[in-house]
Hints:
The complex is a heterodimer of chains A (about 200) and B (about 290). Chain A is of the alpha+beta class and about 200 residues long. Among the domains of chain A are: about 70-155, Sandwich (ATP Synthase, domain 1), CATH 2.60.15.10; about 160-200, no CATH class. Chain A has helices at about 1-35, 35-45, 55-60, 160-175, 180-200, and strands at about 75-80, 80-90, 90-95, 100-105, 110-115, 120-125, 125-135, 135-140, 145-150, 155. The relative contact order of chain A is 0.10. Chain B has about 290 residues and is an alpha/beta fold. Chain B has a domain at about 55-195 and about 205-240: Pyruvate Kinase, Chain: A, domain 1 (3-Layer(aba) Sandwich), CATH 3.40.1380. Chain B has a 5-stranded mixed beta sheet, with helices on both faces. In chain B, strand 2, helix 4 (about 115-125) and strand 3 (about 130-135) form a beta-alpha-beta unit. In chain B, helix 1 runs antiparallel to helix 7 (about 210-289). The two termini of chain B are about 35 Å apart. Chains A and B meet through helix 2, helix 3, strand 1, strand 2 and strand 5 of A and helix 1, helix 2, helix 3, strand 5 and strand 6 of B. Chain B: Its main location: mitochondrion. Chain B: It is a peripheral membrane protein. Chain B: It comes from Digitaria exilis. Chain B: One of its GO terms (molecular function) is proton-transporting ATP synthase activity, rotational mechanism.
Amino acid sequence: MLRHAARRLASRAAAAPTARRALATAEVPAEAAEDSTFVEAWKKVAPNLEAPKTPISLMQPRPPTPASIPTKLTVNFVLPYKSEIANKEVDMVIVPATTGQMGVLPGHVATIAELKPGVLSVHEGNDVTKYFVSSGFAFVHANSIADIVAVEAVPVDQIDPALVQKGLADFTAKLGSASTDLEKAEAQIGVDVHSALNAALTG
Amino acid sequence: MAPLGARSVSTQIVRNRMKSVKNIQKITKAMKMVAASKLRAVQTRTENSRGLWQPFTALLGDAPSVDVKKNVIVAITSDKGLCGGINSTSVKVSRALHKLTSGPEKESKYVILGEKGKVQLVRDSRSSIEMTVSELQKNPINYTQIAVLADDILKNVEYDALRVVFNKFHSVISFKPTMVTILSPEVAEKESEAGGKIGDLDAYEIEGGETKSEILQNLAEFQFSCVLYNGALENACSELGARMSAMDSSSRNAGDMLDRLTLTYNRTRQASITTELTEIISGASALEG
């Protein structure tokens, strides 16, 4: 058994350089999408274990910034339970940022905006689709791609006005009777969201 | 083999074994069906949630080889067993990451979601475990539950970089360990100024009255909860897929064992009949002749 072990070690030592070279040439296209420093460091620590995949290798690379302003804006609107809009080319989106409604056109400067509860509208030609968004983030990249990540969104025509009024009344009452800071904060959030819902229905 | 003369006893033993192996086969087949039906439901939800973390990586890039002082490894494992090797793979990857990210000035801690990971890591790295969470899948995984959990983790743990380790579901038979790195706002700013792989964070205008650091803080927390949600769903899918294939190979093994036992049983039975017949016939021929 020891004799075999010695032989196996020798053969592995001899095969390792050649094997690594063969692996390198085979994996170059994949390595380009991965972080090579990470994979190298990993190989030193755990040579027998395959390195875990990282997000870069799992998603499509984004296109670079074009020289001239493109005609359309590419929108990705994602929610935790589905991708509402994926890679759709539109003319304009209006997002409810904390500073107010922000219009995003193709060629908009790169921006990170935090969203507050409000209406998100997507304009494509003459169609306008409106969603009520609870909160989230909107990123506009230099290559005219807009990513909107929201926690919850519903199309505005699916909101029940009666329930909105009732909710607004409930939370205003709770705000009045709240004693601790936590209760006040929760009631305030409820009032904000419901007033935004109200505005969405009327506006 | 059975002792001489104990003919009927040996067939009894084999028959008992056959009965228990048949029961095991029924149980494993049922577990496979249950896992398959649960998998169908979770798989649609997982695929729908895959778009959630992509905007963050598009904005901030990915820096798995970032060098920071405080690393926290969040390992997502399952609570129940009988799911093949996925939990061991996650634990092995976490241990290697721990080795990779510990050093003279750096330290690395674990946050473990799921019983199976806790049991394996408590054995040798108990001091590095910061917190453990179990019973993740008591109710179907939803975003609110994960957001609360993410908030809990962020409150109790100091970090410069969070590394979330889970098994990504590629297909029913293929699950690859995946690691997502989330940087704390301070480190993200430092990396973007140093011009690393983070991409040009400074090129982005910050909309809003709040300061850049507040927005980056909210961004990091939101990113963590989104990544954790997707990771938990992918791991749940991988667990069900692994359980399906483990139970499938179990029932196939049980079937093979049953075939072999049936042959042994028949052979033993026929041998005992032959022996009895031989005795009777030789006795009868002895009486005649």
